[in-house]
Design brief:
The chain has 3 helices and 10 strands. The protein is α+β, with helices and mostly antiparallel strands. It has a single domain, classed as Gcn5-related N-acetyltransferase (GNAT) (Aminopeptidase, 3-Layer(aba) Sandwich), CATH 3.40.630.30. Strands 1, 2, 3, 4, 5, 6, 7, 8, 9 and 10 form a 10-stranded mixed sheet that branches. A hairpin with a 5-residue loop joins strand 2 and strand 3. The longest helix has 15 residues. It starts with a strand and ends with a strand. The relative contact order is 0.17. Bound molecules: coenzyme A. The site of coenzyme A (COA) has 17 residues, from strand 4, helix 2 and helix 3.
Length: about 180
């Protein structure tokens, strides 16, 4: 098994097809035939089995966010998934470790994500945080405005030694 990262614009058509199939398998409600929900990520972290099969995926948004006046350079993680046949063997944790190391080596302040079920991330050193959030509301391939709301399942891993702040989190764009 190997884990690599690839810029979005360099993904081949077969890679897009494999990502789309994995997303459909892991998130049955995912829009069919697509590899993004609202907007393209900057890059993907991909886990591949020895035979070349795609078995794990994270979409990564490289973004500035404003955490109560503290500007943070973040990796926003989305669509974290592992193929059902390969679960509970540590691959999900390996993908998060890979993201963390990549972020630490490139001056990223924090990892950020929104989880419906936080347990997996809590086990991997993410902190559940409660912030009022502001973000660009994109839905159905249209920009519909700006939302100000609490986001359930917001999780963070600070990497720069600074504390995460209570208060407003301005995502400075759409939600991950
Ligand atoms: C979540 C996911 C990526 C974990 O991948 P994985 O390779 O099985 O992860 P690991 O083997 O590193 O860790 C598995 C551990 O996480 C726990 N875990 C995974 N999903 C969980 C969930 N939804 N609720 C509670 N615990 C969960 C497992 O029980 C296991 O715990 P243990 O180590 O104490 O035995 C994988 O289950 C998956 O793709 N799920 C479907 C997509 C999804 O829900 N993604 C998260 C979106 S927020």
């Amino acid at each position: 098994m190997t884990i690599t990262n690839t810029p979005e614009y360099q993904l081949s058509v077969p890679q897009h097809l494999a990502i789309s199939a994995l997303l459909q398998e892991c998130f049955p409600q995912y829009p069919s035939g697509r590899t993004h929900f609202r907007q393209l990520p900057q890059f993907r972290i991909l886990a591949t089995a020895e035979d070349g099969t795609l078995i794990g995926h994270i979409a990564v948004e490289h973004r500035m966010v404003n955490n109560a006046g503290q500007l943070l350079r973040v990796f926003g993680l989305a669509d974290v998934c592992v193929s059902p046949d390969y679960r509970d063997k540590g691959l999900g944790a390996n993908l998060l470790d890979y993201s963390t190391t990549l972020a630490q080596n490139t001056g990223i302040d924090a990892l950020l994500l929104i989880a419906h079920e936080p347990e997996f991330y809590l086990k991997n050193d993410f902190l559940a945080v409660e912030n009022e959030c502001k973000w660009l509301f994109v839905q159905g391939d249209q920009t519909l405005g700006v939302l100000n709301r609490h986001i359930k399942g917001l999780m963070v891993k600070m990497l720069n030694g600074e504390p995460w702040r209570a208060g407003q989190l301005d995502l400075l764009g759409h939600i991950f």
